[in-house]
Predict the 3D structure of the following.
Amino acid sequence: MSVKGETLEKTRINIREPKHYRVIMHNDDFTPMDFVVQILEEIFHKAQPEAVHLMMTVHESGRAVVGAYPYDIAATKVQTAAARAEAEEYPFRMTIEEV
């Protein structure tokens, strides 16, 4: 029901999902496997069997995608992991690429 003289306005809302970015873990010969599994469990919230599987994939293939997130979340996870690795003096490396 409309009131005389009232203007009806149609509002269109476009909601887009944010772009996602892959977090890629790279192999090195110095970072201990246990440390990598710990990073996967604590920062990326992977269950222990999945964390071990991903760690072995990185070890055998040289790299593995460990998750896909909006950019801010991906960058925060990578920075958190890098800070832990630096504190332990490991050359551990991760990168981010657009999906």
Remarks:
- The chain has a mean pLDDT of 93.
